[in-house]
C-alpha cells in the first residue's frame, strides 16, 4: 500500500510512468500546472500588497499545524522524481476525507477554487511574502481575497485533482511562481510548528 499521493502535473521528458519511482509513497508528481499557475499569477496581481512599509519583511509569527488530527506522511518534501521540478514540491499528509484543514499562517487568500491537478486548492499569501498552498481539498471554506488568521479553518481535506487517495498536499513557496518551494517542515519549525 503506497498510501495517498498526489499525481498531478507535467512529467518531464522521458519520465518514467508513475509508480516506477524508487521509493514507494514518494511519487507525488505535483508538477507545473500552467492553467493553475496563470490563474494564481493573475489573482495575485489583483490583490494589493499590505500598505504598511516593510510588510513583506514582516515575520509570520508563530505558525499552526494545518491538521489537528493524526496524519501519516506519505510523501516527504524534496524526494526526487521524474517531475518538472525534479522533486516533490510539498509534503503529503494522509488523513480521512473531510478532515478539517487550518491555515498554518495568517494572510490573504489569493486563490480558492478548483485548480486542475491540485484539485480544490487554497493559496494564502503570508506577511513575509511566502505562499502556502493547500491542495486536493474536498471542500473549500474560504474565498479568494479573504483575510485569514493563523489556525482558521479554511477547508476540508479530500482527494480532488490528481491524487490516489485522501490527503493534504501542503506546499510553501518563498515567492509565487512554481519552483520557489521551500521545505514546509523546516519553514513551520522555524516558526514554532512541528509537523513531524
Ligand atoms: Zn504532494
List the helices and strands and how they pair.
Elements: H1 34-46, E1 72-75, E2 91-94, E3 100-102, E4 107-114, E5 120-125, E6 131-137, E7 139-140, E8 147-148, E9 153-156, E10 167-173, E11 181-182, H2 184-190
Antiparallel strand pairs: 1-2, 2-10, 3-9, 4-5, 4-8, 5-6, 6-10, 7-9, 10-11
Bound molecules: zinc ion (ZN).
Residues 6, 28, 30, 75, 88, 90, 92, 169 line the site of zinc ion (ZN).
What does this structure look like?
- With 196 residues, the protein is of the alpha+beta class.
- It has a single domain, classed as Glucose Permease (Domain IIA) (Distorted Sandwich).
- The protein has helices at 34-46, 184-190, and strands spanning 72-75, 91-94, 100-102, 107-114, 120-125, 131-137, 139-140, 147-148, 153-156, 167-173, 181-182.
- A hairpin with a 5-residue loop joins β5 and β6 (131-137).
- It starts with 33 loop residues before the first helix and ends in a 6-residue tail after the last helix.
- It binds zinc ion.
- Residues 6, 28, 30, 75, 88, 90, 92, 169 line the site of zinc ion.
